[in-house]
Amino acid sequence: MADVQTPVIRTDIPHSARIWNYWMGGKDHYEIDKIAGDAGLAVDPEIATMAVQSRQYLIRAVRFVAKERGIKQFLDIGTGLPTMQNTHEVAQGVTPEAKVVYVDNDPLVLAHARALLTSTTDEGVTTYIDADFHDPEQIIADARNVLNFNEPIAVMFMGVLGHAKTYDDLLRIVRTVIGAVPSGSHLIYWDGTDDSQAYVTLCENYTGTGGTPYVPRTQAQIRGIFDDLEVVEPGVVSITQWRSETTEVGQALPISAYGAVARKP
């Protein structure tokens, strides 16, 4: 049997997925990620809130498209490290036969993705693709081996396309994938926005560590991603305000992270 090359996991350069895991209270990170994470918190203390709230948004959005829109197939691109209530757990909690394909190209993420296969339902499918979101054509080709592209698919980009090289490249990636799925499919999306100078500075500092640059977008740019799609109420809003329950002290406060759920006509 040929030797399988072990993926190289860099522990000397911080990685956004591992830092995000640290901010969410997870354990899948290295000392360099903790150092970068603590430095980020010093610049923008609200980043931990964004990390936690992004998962709450994922839960609400996946549950919505599974329960209210009857979606049974999910393509989660740039999934990041698993924590709690991952996409397949939420989707299969509503629809046990749901199929979930995770996509990432980070070796640590992929190593943990293998463990996710043990927590799927008997009826459902959970698998992963080793691919870079900059190559959406390859993602589509590989996803066709699992998902039925004649039936609606929920395409997910959850806080990852700030890593796209340019905004035009971001649009190319999203529109290529959405162009391949049928009518009735949904896009679930969010990314960080440039409303907060502290958050912008945090992202600039992260780039300075050698990590892959993450560029916050304007709210107008986020809205532009949903052109030609039917955006679900309440529209493009801060993720804390997307179909969130009213708290005891009033509505959830907005943060510098905006997104929406939209249907392909």
TrEMBL record:
Biological process terms in GO annotation: methylation
Keyword Transferase: yes
Protein's UniProt keywords contain Acetylation: no
Any one GO molecular function term: methyltransferase activity
Keywords: Methyltransferase, Transferase
InterPro entries: SAM-dependent_MTases_sf, SAM_dep_MeTrfase_SAV2177_type
Annotated protein name in UniProt: S-adenosyl methyltransferase
Native species: Nocardia alba
Lineage: Bacteria, Bacillati, Actinomycetota, Actinomycetes, Mycobacteriales
